[in-house]
């Protein structure tokens, strides 16, 4: 058994919908699809986090929805699983002020930084430099 459509990482803005497919190749027999979030059984929420056909739909995504989702398909005695992350897109906050110089004389260094509001804060959820 193998995946036809495994779930893939999703990057959405807060409030948007994320859809994770979970479909096996050519299995006409009844399949059992279960979802985990961060390794624990996923609690579905009426009209917000739902399993429809061979997809998981997360509506009105928020920080509490971010994490690793695992799709587990079982057919008879065979099981396959695939993982995908849900991340929230963010934006870069304004630059900080310049830091103090790292040396009192000579070739010291000054830096400034900024923060990404994405979850998790990284180059996939925010674009641009973090430190200059």
UniProtKB/TrEMBL annotation:
Q: Does the keyword Translocase apply?
A: no
Q: Which InterPro entries match?
A: Ig-like_dom, Ig-like_dom_sf, Ig-like_fold, Ig_I-set, Ig_sub, Ig_sub2, TSP1_rpt, TSP1_rpt_sf
What keywords were assigned to this record?
Answer: Immunoglobulin domain
Protein name (Swiss-Prot/TrEMBL): Ig-like domain-containing protein
Q: What is the lineage of its organism?
A: Eukaryota, Metazoa, Chordata, Tunicata, Ascidiacea
PROSITE patterns, per database record: IG_LIKE, TSP1
The keyword Signal belongs to this UniProt entry's keyword annotation:
no
- Entries under PANTHER family matching the protein: BASIGIN RELATED (PTHR10075), FASCICLIN-2 (PTHR10075:SF100)
Source organism per entry reads Ciona intestinalis (Transparent sea squirt)
Taxonomy, superkingdom: Eukaryota
| Residue stretches making up the Ig-like domain | 1-81
**Which Pfam families does the record associate with it?**
I-set, TSP_1
């Amino acid at each position: 058994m193998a995946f036809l459509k495994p779930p893939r990482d999703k990057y959405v803005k807060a409030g948007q919908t994320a859809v994770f497919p979970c479909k096996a190749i050519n299995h006409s027999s009844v399949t059992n699809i279960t979802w985990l979030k961060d390794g624990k059984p996923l609690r579905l929420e009426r009209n917000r986090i739902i399993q429809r056909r061979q997809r998981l739909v997360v509506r009105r995504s928020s920080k509490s929805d971010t994490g690793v989702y695992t799709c587990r398909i079982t057919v008879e005695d065979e099981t396959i699983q695939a993982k995908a992350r849900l991340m929230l897109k963010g934006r870069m906050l304004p630059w900080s002020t310049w830091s103090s110089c790292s040396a009192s004389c000579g070739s010291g260094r000054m830096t400034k930084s900024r923060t990404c509001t994405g979850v998790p804060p990284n180059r996939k959820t925010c674009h641009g430099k973090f430190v200059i």
